[in-house]
Design goal:
Distance between the termini: 39 Å
Radius of gyration: 20 Å
Number of strands: 11
Number of helices: 15
Low-confidence stretches: none
């Protein structure tokens, strides 16, 4: 965990940050709600986190880096369930009232206190190896599309398809452990447009007319998500002359890709002349975001990322945790894109969309 003094606010947030930014999209409660009584929304979200306990426990049990992992995994399940019960009885216990950041943080704290550092490491490594082998095929399929607008749409569909690999969703964790996930099939099976938030046509019109000098992309999951979804899109930006900063987590959390893992992935994908399938990568930078959760509070990022991002003119937040649950309404001093798949029924209900619907929210800053 980085010390508080090392963390700073993301420099592109609209100021004053205090009145313009809150790292929680869905209001769990309102000022008029009784502070000692859990709201129906709080209860629904506490239940959602409770439903994820069995899949986390299963991953923890098989963590070979931890002595006596099965016993400690049982302790994790019990302790985290007890914390959730406490919050249900008294929303202000454990640093509440709860939001998705607090519920994620408490889960990570319990795991780390018991010695679990990265319970999804094995599955991340397996998925990264698989996705690396598919990368050339996915890139060539994109490169073969001559029409720029159609190629962009294909790249965006790839981001959504990759984003399905999310073991923080109980249903998806179950599907995944049963029969894995096919990236190309997922591309074909996305819900039809218009998506629940669909600014794609506006973005496409800008893409055809405008090029950004520097884009910061907050990446999400390992495997297909970052390798087959984000990297082909980042490569396309590089081809257009945009400098790209990929911001990845400092510490492991669920199956999110970490900063050291992302450096390793990219070194495996580059050829001997440092190119990404024919594209120069001297303008591709990897940054440690300073984050340690599957969601992100942009008032707390690393100084390194803040420095690299200060002159960016496009910010992209990808994935449900970062792009939808915590930052859907975040306002920036530059153009921004929030892109992710809706993988919790509670989020679908809040947005008025379908489960596995897509969010593509583009905001242009004029002037």
């Amino acid at each position: 965990m980085e010390s508080d003094s090392a963390m700073v606010a993301f420099p592109l947030l609209t100021t004053p940050i205090e009145s313009n930014y809150r790292a929680c999209t869905i209001p769990y409660r309102f000022p008029s709600d009784n502070p000692r009584k859990a709201t129906p929304t709080e209860i629904a979200w506490i239940d959602l986190f409770r439903n994820s306990i069995p899949s986390f426990k299963k991953r923890a049990e098989s963590d070979t880096t931890v002595v006596d992992a099965p016993t400690k995994a049982e302790k994790f399940a019990q302790r985290y369930a007890d914390i959730l019960d406490d919050i249900k009885k008294d929303p202000e216990s454990h640093g509440g009232p709860p939001d998705c950041i607090l519920l994620c943080r408490l889960r990570e704290q319990v795991l780390r206190e018991l010695g679990f550092r990265d319970i999804f490491k094995k599955v991340k490594d397996e998925e990264n190896t698989k996705a690396i082998s598919l990368f050339p095929e996915v890139v060539h399929l994109n490169d073969d599309i001559e029409d720029g607008g159609k190629r962009l749409e294909n790249l965006v569909r790839g981001i959504f398809a990759g984003n399905i690999f999310d073991l923080g969703s109980a249903q998806l964790a179950e599907v995944f452990s049963r029969d894995g996930m096919s990236f190309l099939a997922s591309c074909q099976n996305l819900v039809p447009r218009p998506w629940v938030i669909d600014d794609f046509d506006t973005f496409k019109a800008k893409w055809n007319k405008k090029s950004w000098k520097k884009a910061v992309i907050f990446v999400d999951n390992s495997g297909a998500d970052v390798i087959l979804g984000i990297l082909p899109f980042a490569r396309e930006l590089l081809k257009r002359g945009t400098q790209v900063v990929l911001a990845a987590n400092d510490l492991p959390s669920i199956n999110d890709v970490t900063y050291p893992e992302l450096i390793e992935i990219i070194s495996k994908l580059k050829d001997e002349s440092g190119k990404l399938i024919g594209v120069d990568t001297s303008n591709l930078l990897i940054a440690n975001s300073g984050n340690d959760l599957p969601v992100i509070d942009l008032t707390r990022v690393s100084q390194e990322l803040a420095y690299l991002a200060s002159d960016a003119d496009l910010v992209i937040l990808e994935g449900m945790g970062r792009g939808i649950e915590t930052n859907l309404y975040a306002q920036f001093k530059c153009d921004s894109l929030k892109i992710g798949m809706v993988k919790h029924p509670e989020v679908a209900q809040f947005l008025g969309g379908r489960l596995y619907d897509c969010v593509f929210k583009y905001n242009e800053v004029l002037g």
